[in-house]
Specification:
Layout (H helix, E strand, L loop, with lengths): L2 E11 L4 E7 L11 E5 L14 E5 L8 E7 L6 H7 L6 E8 L10 E7 L3 H13 L6 E7 L19 E6 L2 H11 L6 E5 L2 H13 L7 E3 L3 H8 L6
Parallel strand pairs: 7-8, 7-10, 8-9, 10-11
Antiparallel strand pairs: 1-2, 1-6, 2-5, 3-4, 3-6
Bound molecules: flavin-adenine dinucleotide (FAD).
């Protein structure tokens, strides 16, 4: 397993609770839009076994063409050890990146794509949308719907409707508004629905999509195949 130690180059306060850490791009580190990686903090590999408390999965919120690895995360006042350490890190401090994986690339299948996210889940979609806006080949349209109850929406510079490029976006700040909008989108029986957020958000969205006869093959999650059953098993109740 290749481990890339790299420095924090810039820290952006996206909102009062959400930060983007822009990391120096390590040589040889590359990924495709929608990919995630593991981020380890100093000491995570000091013992015989990795200290999982110092490692988290994180989506990469930038594209390689931006020449930086972006990690966007919410850090609440009451937070885990991992987030508490991260919160106090500064430009020049080092973090480790390892194991890049991609489950949610932009699908160029001549379909309408719906990007449904909750909170900071929209970070996974940022590079996907950037890729689409640069080249719309074989994608009918993209519609992004994000719910953030903080009402402090993320990446509004990129998530701006562009009718010429068949790109539309919507932010909502309540569950009721989210489900009302998602119901309308689910009427597209041919669409592809990407869903990113907490497990509870994913399960409830899948339940809604299923009611509209959206099939499992049309739903894209940032999960490895072996974890998919949990979300698609008919016995799952939410
Ligand atoms: C494929 C994939 C991609 C992901 N991409 C991202 C991403 O881009 N950005 C992102 O932010 N996350 C992402 N995640 C989720 C991420 O890995 C973490 O699970 C998530 O950020 C929560 O981490 P945490 O350390 O805050 O939470 P955990 O330790 O899992 O705790 C969950 C919550 O419990 C509370 N909590 C935990 N410890 C304490 C404590 N000591 N005191 C008080 N409250 C506490 C906090 O409110 C915390 O948010 C991704 C996960 C996967 C699987």
């Amino acid at each position: 397993m290749q481990l890339y130690w790299t420095k924090i180059n810039k820290i952006i306060d996206e909102t009062s609770e959400v930060k983007t850490f822009l990391l120096d791009l390590p040589e040889g580190f590359t990924w495709e839009e929608g990919a995630h990686t593991h981020m380890g903090l100093k000491g995570f590999n000091a013992g015989e076994k990795p200290n999982k408390g110092l490692v988290r999965h994180m989506s990469i919120s930038t594209l390689p063409s931006e020449k930086t690895v972006g990690i966007t995360t919410r850090i609440k006042d009451q937070c885990s050890e991992f987030k508490a350490i991260l919160k106090n890190m500064s430009v020049g401090d080092e973090v480790a990146l390892f194991k890049i994986h991609s489950n949610v690339p932009l699908k160029r299948e001549n379909k309408n794509l719906y990007l449904l996210s909750s909170g900071v889940g929209i970070a996974t979609f940022r590079p996907i949308v950037k890729t689409y806006l640069e080249n719309q080949d074989n994608v009918k349209s993209v519609h992004a719907l994000n719910i953030d109850s903080s009402n402090d929406f993320l990446f509004t510079d990129i998530f701006t409707s562009d009718t010429e490029k068949n790109f539309t976006t919507q932010y909502v700040d309540s569950r009721a508004a989210y489900y009302a909008e998602a119901e309308k989108l689910a009427e597209d029986s041919e669409g592809i629905f990407y869903v990113i957020g907490s497990d509870e958000f994913i399960m409830q969205t899948i339940e809604l999509l299923n009611k509209h006869d959206v099939k499992r093959e049309q739903i894209v999650l940032d999960k490895r195949e072996r974890f998919m059953e949990k979300f698609f098993s008919p016995s799952v109740t939410v």
